[in-house]
Design goal:
By secondary structure, the chain is mainly α. The protein has 11 helices and no strands.
């Protein structure tokens, strides 16, 4: 199925808001969790099309070239980089959520990971890291690898509705377990945020295709958590880059505004 530019634009607007903190939004009661296989297919089709049309390989190669030459990007180019990376991330979430293996293909997820590391590097002015990750991304965007990536994405097999629901419930069981431990490392914090981000992406896509109040409220509640966690994770990465914190070993307490929202979410999500 091919979607109109209006639908693609609505998804872009939802993604742009997926880390915006709304202080007054509340969880829907009950939380909507049902999703048919047909809805899963439509969501995956939309995410694939959004990536194909909004994540320009030529534009990203141009940005990588600038980074190799200068080590940084001007503000407008940073925004372009962010938007392309957002389309990649949204598709990665979709491939993990809806795919039968619940794992993004190797080359595709490697590309997304390198994009993230490269963004952290130029934001924090780590010139050597920028050079290394930019070279790696240039290889991943070369024509032979790009062709293989497109083949990977097209070849992902859809799970069934029962498997999709079981996967999401398992994710929330992991969240409950992580939250019960109290302190956490930067790496564990990032793992928690990835679960939240995947859920945001699901409700963003579903509400784009099927606008309704419950899905919108769920999307906005998750976005608040995602935004708070994203800001804190940026600080953790910066501190680790300066040698002020060991990202994988140093413990810290979960901030109360994030913890309270996560506990409300995991308590309300159907077991």
């Amino acid at each position: 199925m091919t979607y109109s530019q209006e639908v693609l634009g609505a998804l872009f607007e939802a993604i742009e808001m997926d880390d915006v903190v709304d202080p007054v939004v509340s969880l829907p009661d009950p939380i909507p969790v049902d999703c048919t296989r047909d809805e899963m297919q439509r969501c995956l089709d939309l995410c694939r099309q959004f990536w194909r049309e909004r994540a320009s390989r030529a534009e990203m190669r141009e940005l990588v070239g600038t980074l190799l030459l200068t080590g940084d990007l001007p503000q407008d180019a940073r925004k372009r980089y962010k938007h392309i990376r957002a389309a990649y991330k949204h598709l990665r979430f979709a491939l993990v959520l809806y795919g039968a293996s619940h794992k993004a293909p190797l080359l595709f997820r490697s590309t997304v990971a390198v994009m993230g590391h490269l963004q952290d590097a130029f934001r924090n002015r780590r010139r050597a890291a920028v050079l290394g990750y930019a070279i790696a991304l240039r290889v991943l965007l070369s024509w032979p690898v790009w062709t293989a990536v497109r083949r990977e994405v097209s070849g992902v097999t859809l799970d069934d509705a029962a498997g999709f629901l079981a996967y999401r419930k398992a994710e929330f069981r992991r969240l409950r377990g992580w939250l019960s431990t109290g302190s956490l490392t930067g790496h564990r914090f990032h793992s928690i945020r990835k679960v939240v981000s995947r859920q945001v992406s699901f409700y963003d896509t579903l509400r784009t295709l099927e606008p309704e109040e419950q899905g919108y409220r769920m999307s906005r509640f998750l976005s608040a958590i995602n935004g708070l966690m994203g800001s804190m994770h940026d600080d953790l990465v910066e501190q680790a880059g300066k040698g002020h914190r060991d990202y994988h070993r140093d413990d810290f307490p979960m901030p109360e505004d994030i913890l309270s929202r996560l506990k409300a979410l995991t308590a309300a999500y159907p077991a």
